[in-house]
């Protein structure tokens, strides 16, 4: 796998975000999340045209070459079928819940080419996320249905943090990509509010920080309920969000085109 995707100068994103995770689960989750990222980042036609580069990444995961006639989407289906099998092997008792969540995400999130007019609509869409399911699976925590309901606002706020943090830091890379489906709040805010790029980025940073405050507040309420599972879940989420923000601010993937001054500013924003 391409190291630049996973590593920043201060470490591997999955080691930073899931330090307490079960090792083999975190490793498999990392593969799956990477595959979701690749799928998310590529316009469909371009993905087909750049098939050889993508295949190289997938071969690195231990898969064989796709049939010559297979399109990108059918190849991705093959890969995710294999992931389902490997999740179930690692966790026969509860793996099905994670598999179902990933399938739902692929169908609802990646299955649409909708272009969003407002940041509000876009954030609702971007809250569709597997991050809470991966977190629980990686940490081997199983929330009860009641606990899951109690966490719903907390998960929604944290999903907003994940999305907007990614948008803020990845925009420098994504703005240079040709894409047929914009998945970043910065250009949406520019258009919706008639803002310069710099001011739209400031708005997105502010919304991310606002969602961080909300996540923190809701997390404190959950921690005070006395359940060990809820406490672990909240602490795991806080570490994951903090790690993701720190890594995003430092990783070459998002920061390769920045000058040192700009990089310093992003780094400071993550602290
Ligand atoms: Mg992004």
From TrEMBL:
This is Terpenoid synthase. It comes from Sporormia fimetaria CBS 119925. InterPro entries: Isoprenoid_synthase_dom_sf. Pfam families: Terpene_syn_C_2 (PF19086). Gene3D superfamilies: Farnesyl Diphosphate Synthase.
